[in-house]
Each structure stands twice: as structure tokens, then as C-alpha cells.
Amino acid sequence: MSIDPHADELNNPACYLPQPHDAKFITENLQPMGPIGPWATGKVDWSPMAGLTGTRPVVDRYSITRFSPSEWRAKNFETVKNTNQVFDRALRNQHHSKTSQMRISAMVDKTQSETTDNVRQRAHLIDKWKTTLGAAIKAMADEISILEEERVRLKKSLVILELPESIAKECLDKRCGRPDTELVRDAPEEELINELALIAEIRQLLKKTLEDFEQQQVENRSARQRLEYDWSDKKEAYEMDSANAHLQNKSTTIMFRPGAVRQPPE
Prior knowledge:
Elements: E1 31-32, E2 43-44, H1 50-53, H2 69-176, H3 187-245
Antiparallel strand pairs: 1-2
Helix pairs in contact: 2-3
Keywords: Cell projection, Cilium, Coiled coil, Cytoplasm, Flagellum
Family: Belongs to the tektin family.
InterPro entries: Tektin-like, Tektins
């Protein structure tokens, strides 16, 4: 039976697919084998047992007929079926890819928006602390200046304190030069001795206060240095966060890095 190559137009299976008459028994399709080898029995068929009985044609230099047309069409049908399955899987994968791309794009946009807001808030917070540090640095500088003025005054006071001390000592020395009959411990001498003792206490107090001032100055300068370092870090961080907060996907300063789109494990 000839197969119409335009079978599709007659609502029949295509010529390369299984036909209705292929369902007949295989034994009806027995054909003479011909001179293809001394092992042949004179008949050929394409039944499932043909490979065991030796009746399936053998491909050699005399013949290339290995399979029947019905087997060829069945193989084509299986190939088309597998192709359709692969195509269906490809369509599903394409759908999943598009869905995943849309989901990841939405997730990336949301994360980018949240990150930008967080960076902007962080920049405002850093600017607030930078302003606070600037005020603290100014206050510390004022305190250092005031303490320096007081330290200079203390040093001058120590120098000026030598004047009454020298006067009191000179008075005592003069009184020691009196005649023996006049060497008495009277009230003026007691006052001079008390004055020298008071001057010594004042000098000791001024020296201790001066040492405290100098120690406080060292601590104040160290604190101001730390504040200035912190203010410098805050300034640099604020400039970076401010620049990052204004970045967009179309910014010309963006640099692409390998692995930047790698999604971290959940």
C-alpha cells in the first residue's frame, strides 16, 4: 500500500508516523529474503523474535534493509514523542526562568531600595554625630585654652610669691643681728615665722595645683586628639555614605565586580 505524502491534509497521520495498517500481524508482512547469506531461511520478518530466529535482515555488503517501514515509522513516532517531551520541559524551564528572573528582579529592587534608605539614614546619623563631635572638640579646645591661661597665672604666682618670702626672711635675718639683750621672741617675730610657714604652704599648694593642671592638660589634649580622629572618621564615612545614597543603576561611577550578583545561601 502506497502512503500519501500529503496525508496530513486528509486528516491522516503523516507519512513518517505509524499508519493504521501497521497494526496488522507481522506474519502477514513476510517477504522473500533473497540472496543475502547462506544462513538465511528464505523468509524475512520483523517480528520481536526475528533477532533470535535469524529471520531479521542482516546489514552487509549485499543489503542495507535492516528495519521495516512500520518499525521506522514507530521509531519516528517515539522520536517525535520524546522531542515533544523535551520541548515541554524546555517550555517549563523557560517559564520557570522568567518567573525566577521576575521574582529575583523584584527582590533585588526591594533590597536595593531598603539598602539605599538604610544608607541614607546612616548618613544622617553619622552627620549628627559628626556635628556633636565638632561641638565637643570646640569645647575641649576652649577648656584647654582656659587651663593654659590658669597654668601661666599659677607659674607667675609662684614667681611673685618669692617676693614676700624674701622680705620675711630678710626681716628675720635683720632681727638676728640685734644685741644679745634684744634677742627676744616677740610678736613681730612670731608673725614673721607664721608668714614664712604660710608662704611655704601656699607654694606647696600652688605647685600641686600646677601639677594637676599640667596632668589635666595632657589628658585634655589626648582626648581632643581622639575626638579629632573620630571626627575625621565620621567625616570620611559621611562622605562615602552620602555618595552611595545618591547612586542609581544608571550612575556612571558604578564599577562592575565579578560575583556581585551572586545570591547568598538562604
